[in-house]
Design a protein that fits this description.
One of its GO terms (molecular function) is acyl-CoA dehydrogenase activity. The chain has three domains: 114 residues, Acyl-CoA dehydrogenase/oxidase, N-terminal domain (Butyryl-Coa Dehydrogenase, subunit A, domain 1, Orthogonal Bundle), CATH 1.10.540.10; 110 residues, Butyryl-CoA Dehydrogenase, subunit A, domain 2 (Beta Barrel), CATH 2.40.110.10; 146 residues, Butyryl-CoA Dehydrogenase, subunit A, domain 3 (Up-down Bundle). The chain contains ten helices and ten strands. Bound molecules: acetoacetyl-coenzyme A (CAA). Acetoacetyl-coenzyme A binds next to strand 3, helix 6 and helix 10.
Length: 380
């Protein structure tokens, strides 16, 4: 895999990095403290073309590629895990399935508003009784004339309270198991749709996470996404792409913690020496950087394979598994290097450690990634 970045990718990465440093980093502590969604950042990202990086210009996208998108999530997450997941869930879990499975009318109707950031997207798969076992959907969709009627609820939905457009999964035929699941595009103003409980979380506290409620929710027939019964496949394919986004978020969080630790250990003096002069510190930092560099190769490889339309399912799972576990380990080690100060909110490493934990859980736990990888190896 050739990671020789093109001039355009180098230019975009520079722009994302400067945007993250100048516009995102200054808000990160406040978003976390106040559990505040960064709406102003979404507007700015929309103007810069960051809300639809790898979608064609004819649908309002920036016409870029998947690697540039991964680098955007990485750069944002170096300074703010919340902003990283806002972009990732919007792009991978809502814009991508509409682009990849939508009709021409659906793409023209929904993508321009999403790619410009005028509207935010979300994805409703998880239910109270269908988490890792995603095929156990209990939300139902019944066709009545020119519309479907949806009943049920979803939980832990990223961007749930701020999104206008949702890709939602429901059972159209219970007797067919996962082949009875269908996907729908739901607008927040459809009758019978509402959002519920807002979750108070350990990390990524500025991101919105809430329940979605469907009470005789009317969804026009033309909002079926893909064919009836193909919803589970659409969900799995969407999550393959989503896992690249979350892997990039984990990558950024770990790299951000390394940057903070390199800076701090050269400032802090104990026993008359800078912490960076102790061999323990040097070895810790070397290991931390090496883990994140290895994660970067896996994330970039998965992104490049998706761009080339190669089968990248296992690559996305390996990238997410490795990057998430590396980020949790590296952010925890960063807190340790900071000592007591690392445990306080005066420094960002404790926030990074809290933010990193969720990357081992959402869009498929690390155990799910191991299931995907081992099944691809033919292990039964
Ligand atoms: N692409 C296309 N099709 C796929 C696929 C993929 N990546 N993975 C599986 N499929 C297909 C299979 O080919 C199979 O098709 P057939 O029935 O036609 O043979 C079908 O799907 C069922 O496959 P499995 O038997 O492997 O499915 P399973 O029920 O055993 O589940 C699983 C496997 C890996 C555990 C899967 O259910 C899974 O990924 N679970 C985790 C779900 C998840 O990530 N949830 C997070 C939701 S989003 C979120 O976190 C919140 C947010 O807003 C960020």
């Amino acid at each position: 895999m050739d990671f020789h970045l093109t001039n355009e990718q180098l230019m975009l990465r520079k722009m994302y990095r400067e945007f993250a440093e100048n516009e995102v980093k200054p808000l990160a502590e406040e978003l976390d403290e106040e559990e505040r969604f960064p709406m102003e950042t979404v507007e700015k990202m929309g103007k810069l073309g960051m809300m639809g990086i790898y979608f064609p210009k004819e649908y309002g996208g920036a016409g870029g590629d998947v690697l540039s998108y991964a680098m955007a999530v990485e750069e944002l997450s170096k300074v703010c895990g919340t902003t990283g997941v806002v972009l990732s869930a919007h792009t991978s879990l809502c814009c991508a399935p509409i682009f990849e499975h939508g009709t021409e009318e659906q793409k023209k109707k929904y993508l321009p508003d999403l790619c410009s950031g005028r509207k935010i997207g979300a994805f409703g798969l998880t239910e109270p009784n269908a988490g890792t076992d995603a095929s156990g959907q209990q939300t139902t969709a019944v066709l009545e004339g020119d519309h479907y009627v949806l009943n049920g609820s979803k939980c832990f939905i990223t961007n749930g309270n701020v999104a206008s457009t949702f890709v939602v999964f429901a059972m159209t035929d219970k007797s067919k198991g996962n082949h009875g699941i269908s996907a729908f595009i739901v607008e927040k103003d459809f009758p019978g749709f509402s959002t519920g409980k807002h979750e108070k979380k350990m990390g990524i506290r500025g991101s919105s996470t809430c329940d979605l409620i469907f009470e005789d929710c009317i969804v026009p027939k033309e909002n079926l996404l893909g064919k009836e019964g193909k919803g589970f496949k659409i969900a799995m394919q969407t999550l393959d792409g989503g896992r690249i986004g979350i892997a990039a978020q984990a990558l950024g969080l770990g790299e951000g913690a390394v940057n903070e630790a390199v800076k701090y250990t050269q400032e802090r003096v104990q026993f008359g020496k800078r912490l960076s002069q102790f061999q323990n510190t040097q070895f810790q930092l070397a290991d931390m950087h090496t883990r994140m560099q290895a994660a970067q190769y896996l994330v970039y490889a998965a992104a490049c394979k998706k761009q080339l339309h190669e089968d990248y399912s296992m690559d996305a799972s390996m990238a997410k598994l490795f990057a998430a576990e590396a980020a949790s380990d590296v952010t925890r080690r960063a807190v340790q290097l900071f000592g007591g100060y690392g445990y306080t909110r005066e420094y960002p490493v404790e926030r990074m450690m809290r933010d990193a934990k969720i990357t081992e859980i959402y869009e498929g736990t690390s155990e799910v990634q191991r299931m995907v990888i081992s099944s691809r190896l033919g292990v039964k």
